[in-house]
Amino acid sequence: MIIVQTPLRISFFGGGTDFPSYFMEEGGCVLSSAIDKYIFVTIKRRFDDFIRIGYTRTEIVESINEIQHELIREALRKVGITKGVEITTMGDIPSGSGLGSSSTVTVGALHAMYAYLNCSINAEQLAREACEIEIDILKKPIGVQDQYIAAYGGLRFFEFSNSGEVCNHLLALDEVLMTRLNENLLLYFTGTTRQAASILLEQKDNIRAKKATLRQLKELAYVAREELQKGNIDVIGTLLHESWQYKKQLASKISNGHIEEIYETARKAGALGGKVTGAGGGGFLLLYCPYEKRDLVRSSLNGLREVPIRLEPDGSKTIFNYRR
Q1: Which of 3, 108, 280, 302 is 20 to 30 A off residue 293, Cα-Cα?
Q2: Which residues are catalytic?
């Protein structure tokens, strides 16, 4: 049996500029981090030649073509496993929450399958093949940042060139700064999950008309990286607020009255800024709050569920490998 642990993520800056239809023309960048919430993928040999897949439902099929879970199906095809395996996926956070769960499943599934075949694979290949499955094969209207941060882990700055090359830079903050950053980030569940596809499709369709906004989001990502490297942690909160105002312009349902009410309540209590993670429309609200204001913000959002997080240094990794 193989068990692979792959982290979910929070994206701080630059989301939207990681869509190939944008960065292949103008280049893009994102600042994001893996977090200590995970998707676990297990794979083991079966006694027979059937394929069993367990997630929110259970599938037992004779052929890959019969598999309804499209991410698992295409991962099996890419790796070349055709029969006689049992695969399960389990997550710390429900899907549709804006923490990159679909891409995390894809990266984790590929990693587990390659480990099952005793093939070594690096983070770059994992991320690239996950992008191929989701964007090229399944035609999902998404960017490429989630696959890369799930594979690599850490707090990273990714640059996407118009040649298609992806360059990644680990932001190695010292221990004191990383502790402060962890302490000042609050994550709240808005109370609703959502299907991101319609929001992302609108966002993708709007790219040509929203290029000026995307350039602003890209510029803020570069500024945020520079400020972090200087140790100016609290500036991140102010920049998050500015970036959130731009992000809401990319599609009509990224925010709504409920989200805005929560956000403004947190700001009045002392949060410097924040954003809805992922495509928007629901899921989780990320807030940057100076340490001395945390209790006030928590009191103001008393009816919402806080999910404690820390930034995760590791990407997708095998945590159990037992072979008979």
Answers
A1: 280
A2: 146
